[in-house]
Amino acid sequence: MKKMTKGERHMSMALAEFTEKLVSVSDFSQGKAGKIFSDVAENDSEYIVLKNNQPTAVLMSPAQYREIQRKLAQLDRVMAMAENIRLLRLAESRDVTKTTTFEDFVKEQGFTMEELEELSESVEIE
Q1: pLDDT at 72
Q2: What's the half-sphere exposure (Cβ side, CA atoms, 13 Å) at 116?
Q3: What is the mean pLDDT of the chain?
Q4: Residue 30 pLDDT exceeds 90
Q5: Could you tell me if 113 and 106 are in contact, meaning their C-beta atoms sit under 8 angstroms apart?
Q6: Cβ proximity of 49 and 23 under 8 Å
Q7: According to the model, what pLDDT value does residue 10 have?
Q8: Where does residue 98 fall: left (phi above 0), alpha (psi -120 to 50 degrees), or beta otherwise?
Q9: Distance between CA 27 and CA 24 in Å, rounded?
């Protein structure tokens, strides 16, 4: 039999710990709710509640929930800041010194202002 590496042992232990935290809804009606809630309250444990073998809820202490919410708010602020920096760098990368007037733009496109005026008068919008 092949000897497990340290990483494989760690993964195996993590998987075992994870499966211990899976709890069926039926466990709550079989008198295990008190033990589960005590474990959550006393040890900040987390449980994944299964219904029909599908994860449907996560049970955690209020302190853990508040910490997750705090970290999520912090992450939202960091992401907003990162987006602002990205947009600022994009704006700074554009050469804003080469601005032109509308009249010069029309001229560069091979038209005159008079031609545009005539064209705008000939167009009828209903």
Answers
A1: 93
A2: 11
A3: 84
A4: no
A5: yes
A6: yes
A7: 57
A8: beta
A9: 5
